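Appendix B, Record 12. Input sequence as logged:
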Amino acid sequence: MSGLENFWNIYGNLVMSLGTNALLALSIWLTLACGMLAMANAAFMGIGAYAAALLTMNYDMPFSVALAGGMAAPALVAALIGLPTIRLSGVYLAMATLGFGEVVRVAILNTESVTGGALGLNGIPQLTQWWHVAGAVVIVLLVLWRMRVSKVGRAFDAIRGDETAAGLMGIDVRANKMLAFILGAAVAGLAGALNAHLTFFIGPQEFGFDRGVEILTMTILGGINSLIGPLLGSAIITVLPEALRGLGDFRLVANGVILVLIVLFLPQGIWDPARFARWTRKGGKRHA
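Logged structural output:
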């Protein structure tokens, strides 16, 4: 048991970061699955983190209430900004959501009396346990799996394939995009709430452009053709810096090279069921 305890003492936060990053990757998977390149998930994570932290620090709310608030706050914001935003597509949607993220960051910096400004919030109670993170990942996965095989999931696939054709088939494109946008915000907020009560401290620099790109990279790296892809991509992005720690300052370079190679040679992500099926058929033909 001492070996297990030592491992947990050293790598416990890394293991739980695997879970929170998995939630973030799943949050942006929702919008990508509906054909939207939205880059607001880091901002939604920040809103959820600050909302949950303020509920526990200033109002002594139970952790369950703080988690619910951390999901509800970004979901409400997403509902408000979604109406004009989801009319955009492609790079224009990405630019608009990046701009929203910058608005959130500046708002946090200029509300020092509430958010602590540039100094952030310190002394957040450490309430997040491993089973909170594991339970959140399992529940989100079950909900998304059920959604993927339902009428809503088929509508998402149709919209991603051809938005105009989906509309002609009777699919309410705007309503489905709003649903994906709001659910993605709620999941990102949940990740932020869990992370805030794990790390004791949150600051506006944690939820900026770099974080948004990292969240997108997780999902693109793993692949968006299944729910396994975001989990795999988030695990790689979380563990890779630790695995390359021995390279010192060169580990970021090695990290970038690996990602570029994967994007060049595996454009559908590492987890691509169609590619696996092709390999299986080729292997069967060779053995026939």
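The two ends are 51 Å apart (CA to CA).
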